[in-house]
Amino acid sequence: MLMKTIKVQNHCYSQLLSIKESYKVVFYSICLCLFLSLSCFTLLAVEAPANTKQTPAVLEKTAAGGKVRIQFVKGNWYEILKKAKSENKLVFVEVYATYNEDSKALQKEAFNNPTLAAYYNVQFVNYQIDIVHDKKATTFAELYDLNFEKLPALLFFNPQAGTKGELLHSQYGPTDITTLLKTGQDLLESNKPVVQLANYQLEDEQFIASENEYLSRKTGERSLENLQVYAYGLKQQRRPYNEVVNEYLQTLTKQQHQTTSEEWKVHHQFIYDFAINVENEAIEVFIHNFADFRENYGEQPMQDKLKAAISNSVFTAIYQNNQALFKRTQQILTLIKVLAILPTPVIEEFDFEMQSLFYQGIGNWHVYSQIAYEYLHQRPITNAVLLNKVAHNFQQNVSSKTLLQSALGWINKSIKIEDAYYNNHTKALLLYNLEKPKKAEKAAQRAIDIATLQGGIDYRPSLELLEQIR
Predict the structure, then answer these.
(1) What is d(CA 107, CA 52) in angstroms, rounded to the nearest whole number?
(2) Is the model's pLDDT at 201 over the cut of 80?
(3) With contact defined as beta carbons under 8 Å apart, do 166 and 172 qualify?
(4) How far is CA 367 from the centre of its chain?
(5) Which candidate among 73, 135, 204, 307 keeps its CA 20 to 30 Å from the CA of 38?
(6) Cis bond leading into 345, ω under 30°?
(7) What confidence score (pLDDT) does residue 286 get?
(8) Residue 91 lies in a domain
């Protein structure tokens, strides 16, 4: 099995360019047909059915300055823990008060930052508690022995630990975007899922020695052992390592016939450990050997690992506004599709999620609206939350009346699937944007009635909308 890994790797290097060239046309065609989820983290050429509606000629202007924001999940606390556990994510909780100025500033500035929002929406399950109006605030504080005298309180939980999860980190009072982003990254690094990151620690002396040896030799002269130790050391110190990883893999291809079975295990682990983004060649080797890794680690963990690698690079592309890197993620998704690594529905949904995430993250709502329109009109979507999410994004960021009318159709479909507060409120907002105040008032009142009946739902946004309408 391990021998197969490197044999396929050899094919990867000898045939990868031809694969990429062969699907070059497919790739650029695919870029025109896209999809969302956030979802947070596989590029497909999906032919639209013959009766699919065409994109309106007026996929024109979108409102300038629209930004993706952190999405907070509704539900009781144990539902949140269950969701996070099933998705293998940590939980981020903001405890706030509407009267608190620091809470207001955080929600207005940090939570609307596209980079922070893109990161938190995929890496965490996000949850909010209003300390004044939320009945569960007291119970929550008692459960974890917390004191909310200073707000906002920002809490991070590991849902995998016991029935109530484990509080990993807490901070109180004002903070900023940089601090929140670094806190999230540090927590993910120290509480990383087994499928994503390596457990390889080096002493400083080892790293210095490996760096000195690396710098003293030219490409082609360095040993596999040196490249391996140096790559892990760079990763441990959060320094760029992709060039070293690529040299390791190229050297391994040349020396594969001289390697023992025990050494193959080390190489196999190296490939696994560095297939964590699309910026080095380990991801292609991992994909070509997916069956072997799946046999060793399981189907779902390996699917999650692939998605994590792609989403990691999408986050980087958003942060750097790097179109070239984003195209690279699409090339990898094309390779996954060509090799049938994942089921088609899974690839389609993830592709839409990543493309939507990227264009939301860089604030390109025009392209986002094209992607979303085409995706929702080409497929029988039965996910009420997804339909609401896209419709709400259109309501917030799209000015075209034609597209808003399409969004109204999606939200009606969402309500037909699940008649809930969240989608009735979105419907009211859309109708208000479409200058239909009577219908907007009726939808807002319906949202309030559902929230009152169910209990535990903050329907103040609907009340505020009613005041605007009247």
Answers:
(1) 40
(2) no
(3) no
(4) 18
(5) 135
(6) no
(7) 94
(8) no
Domain count, the chain: 1
Q: Report residue 22 CA to chain centroid gap.
A: 29
Render pLDDT for 75-124 as a digit per residue (tens, 0 to 9): 888 889 888 888 788 999 999 988 788 888 899 888 988 778 878 888 89
Polymer length in residues for the chain:
470
The pair of structure tokens assigned to 421 is 């507060």
pLDDT tens track for 161-191: 777 888 999 999 888 888 898 888 888 877 7
Distance separating alpha carbons of residues 318 and 364, to the nearest angstrom: 11
How many angstroms separate the CA atoms of 241 and 176, rounded? 29
**pLDDT tens-digit map of 220-232:** 899 999 999 999 9
User: Does residue 218 lie within any of the structural domains?
Assistant: yes
Residues sharing a CB contact under 8 Å with residue 31, sequence separation 6 or more, in sequence order = 43, 327, 330
Q: What whole-number distance in Å separates Cα of residue 214 and Cα of residue 400?
A: 57
Name residue 420's amino acid: A
Q: Phi and psi of 125, rounded to 5°?
A: -95, 120
Per-residue pLDDT reduced to its tens digit, 321-345: 899 999 999 999 999 999 998 888 8
What digits encode the pLDDT tens for the residues 450-461? 989 988 777 888
Domain-embedded: residue 337: no
Identify the residue whose tokens are 């208000």: 432
**With b meaning 16 or more CB within 10 Å and e meaning fewer, what string describes 199-229?**
eeebeeeebebbbebbeeeeeeebebebbbb
Nearest one of 148, 142, 144, 168 to 156, comparing CA atoms? 168
